Amino acid sequence: MPEQEPPLKDHLAYLLAQASREINRQLESRLNDEGVPLDQWRILKVLSDLNGHSMGDLADAVLLNHPTLTKIIDRMVSDALVYRVPDSIDRRRVLIFISDRGKLLNSRLEALVRRQEADFVDGYGSQSVVHLKRLLEGLVGNARKISDPRGRTEPGLGTDGIMELARGEE
């Protein structure tokens, strides 16, 4: 008798996507109160380090493709939330910076995002949330290691670290 395939809900990729969708939906609802899309918040959050970021680095950090990021940045420039500056080292590159108006908006949004995370912690406990974050960081690191044909890796826990965390070891 052939082995029965597991249902979709039993696949890790599906569960991660489902969790991401639900958490993002809740966060989008909060951000919509300020009239800010989720991607725009991510951009402001990355730029809040006050270091200019190239479009390529920013696209990677906020999980967007270049054309989509360009459209959002154009809108944010029009809204005076960010501005572009030519890179002093490579004039062909443009760096994106957060404006004073963007900083003010980001401060208001940070309170909403912290409330979202606090609600999550209330439901699961701070230990569990810290544990989950470490597991996910390790999972992302491992996935990048597996998918990069050049063997480069991002910092992560690796398989052994993930298994130790899953068993509650550190």
Characterise the protein shown here:
- The protein folds into 2 domains: 8-116, Orthogonal Bundle (Arc Repressor Mutant, subunit A); 125-170.
- It is built from 7 helices and 3 strands.
- It has 170 residues and is mainly alpha-helical.
- The radius of gyration is 19 Å and the shape is globular.
- The longest helix is centred in the middle third of the chain and has 25 residues, at 100-124.
The separation of the N and C termini measures 42 Å
User: What is the tally of helical segments?
Assistant: 7
Give the total of beta strands.
3
CATH superfamily of the largest domain: Winged helix-like DNA-binding domain superfamily/Winged helix DNA-binding domain
What's the gyration radius in Å?
19 Å
Query: Strand fraction band?
Result: 5-15%
Structural class category: mainly alpha
Tell me the number of structural domains. 2
**CATH topology (fold) name of the largest domain:** Arc Repressor Mutant, subunit A
| Second rung of CATH, namely the architecture of the largest domain | Orthogonal Bundle
Unreliable runs: 153-170
**Portion in helices:** 55-70%
Strand order, main sheet: write it out: 1-3-2
Q: Kindly provide the name of the CATH class of the largest domain.
A: Mainly Alpha
